[in-house]
Amino acid sequence: MIIFAMESSCDETAAAVVRAEDGRFQVLSDIVSSQIPIHALYGGVVPEIASRAHCEAISGVARQAVEQSGVSLSDVDAAAVTFAPGLIGSLLVGVSFTKALASSLGIPLIPVDHIRGHVAAAYVEHPDVKPPYLALVVSGGHTSLYHVTDWNTFTEIGGSRDDACGEAFDKVGRVMGLPYPGGAAMDRLAAEWFALEREGDVNPFRFPTPAVADDSFDFSFSGLKTAVINTIHNEKQKRKSDELPDEIRREIAGAFTRTVTEGITKKLGAAIRETGASTLVMAGGVAANSHLRRAVEDVCRRRKTVFAVPSLHLCGDNAVMIAAAGYYGWRAGIRADSSLNAYASDEGSADYLAALERKAEHHENHADL
Ligand code: KG4
Ligand code: ZN
After folding, report:
1. Which residues line ligand 1 (CB under 6 A)?
2. Which residue's CA is the closest to the ligand 1 atom numbered 3?
3. Which ligand is nearest to the Cα of residue 139, counting in written order?
4. C-alpha 85 to ligand 2 mean position (Å)
5. Domain boundaries, the chain
């Protein structure tokens, strides 16, 4: 089948056309129009500007996705769209557009949860991944660990009690003077530090772990974030300058990154042991971090667990992942109608999805009779 997918939950307008057959995916087009240069001026996403930018970009992005795919609109069998969680105005743009498209083509409309979409990005390049598995989503808005027991059954077994991991990267990056969003620049700075460390340099900075000190699989990034930001301010004050020397920035980026990776791998190791999971999926924007990828890969190797992480371009927001998640929603019979709404948080959206799943099961049971 051919799926058209749309993603507009935050600051990327993305559309994709994907062929899905028996759990194998062929990406026919993958268009992402990023608003990062606009929001960089403000040091973070401005919701109202984001909604307007989605409105301006969406038709062109959708048209480009269809043109590049080589299929015509009449070949499309279903339309999938991110309907939660995210910025409500941004989500509404994608939901309204895709609703209209599905209705004009007379094809099913599949609502997709953005976080499950991130996880589904792993299926595209790792088609052998099958539930049950563990999934860690580390993004700008979420840090959550799920036990996925069926394609559409996600049980959250841990996560951040406060800030998301990517938020910590972005805030620390901003105070350090790195371009927005800070994650990618921090990755490079930390790499420079780790190269020096291999030659014998010692890092003077120590930060508190984000791994909560109990048996849960929970994290807390706000203490770490505040400690790093205070350190940056102290170092600036010591020098009576708003600019930090490169060597201090490298050391701070290195110590921060190591603290994050050690905290995450500690909890992941415990979660793999406790659940006996044979596969771990890591996804979301922060899953692009080269140090985190290496550290988690190491844990998985030691625990003989398959590690499935999307390649870099599928870690950040995109619509291919929404098509992959939409495919499994479609297979389960999940269909939205024109009353589909957008939800900023998981609260209302989880109930809505659960109701659609019950409806799909009911239909299936009746079809069997
Ligand atoms: O998944 P995503 O594109 O959007 C959300 O759903 O939130 O994630 C964006 C986040 C930002 O916080 C960004 O700084 C972070 O992913 N990020 C990284 C890296 N690349 C992007 N964080 C650490 N290291 C990276 N290489
Ligand atoms: Zn995302």
Report:
1. 10, 139-141, 166, 169-170, 181-184, 187, 284-286, 288-289, 316-317
2. 316
3. 1
4. 9
5. 2-127+315-367, 133-312
CATH architecture of 2-127+315-367: 2-Layer Sandwich (3.30)
Distance of CA 164 to the CA centre of its chain: 11
User: Residue 120's closest CA among 331, 358, 269, 301?
Assistant: 331
Closest residue by CA, ligand 1 atom 2: 285
Residue whose Cα lies nearest atom 10 of ligand 1: it is 140
Strands in the chain per DSSP E: 2-7, 12-21, 24-34, 78-84, 109-113, 133-138, 143-150, 153-159, 279-283, 306-308
Is domain 133-312 given the CATH code 3.60.21.10 in the classification?
A: no
Which of 335, 333, 327 has its CA nearest to residue 367?
333
Amino acid at 38: I
What is the whole-number distance in angstroms between the Cα of residue 78 and the centre of ligand 2? 22
User: Per the structure block, which two tokens stand in for 264?
Assistant: 């995450």
Measured in Å, residue 265 CA sits from the centre of ligand 2 at: 21
CA of 182, closest atom in ligand 1: 14
Per-residue pLDDT 10s for the chain (369 aa) are 999 999 999 999 999 999 999 999 999 999 999 999 999 999 889 999 999 999 999 999 999 999 999 999 999 999 999 999 999 999 999 999 999 999 999 999 999 999 999 999 999 999 999 999 999 999 999 999 999 999 999 999 999 999 999 999 999 999 999 998 999 999 999 999 999 999 999 999 999 999 999 999 999 999 999 999 999 999 999 999 999 999 999 999 999 999 999 999 999 999 999 999 999 999 999 999 999 999 999 999 999 999 999 999 999 999 999 999 999 999 999 999 999 999 999 888 999 999 999 999 888 777 665
Domains 2-127+315-367 and 133-312 share a fold: yes
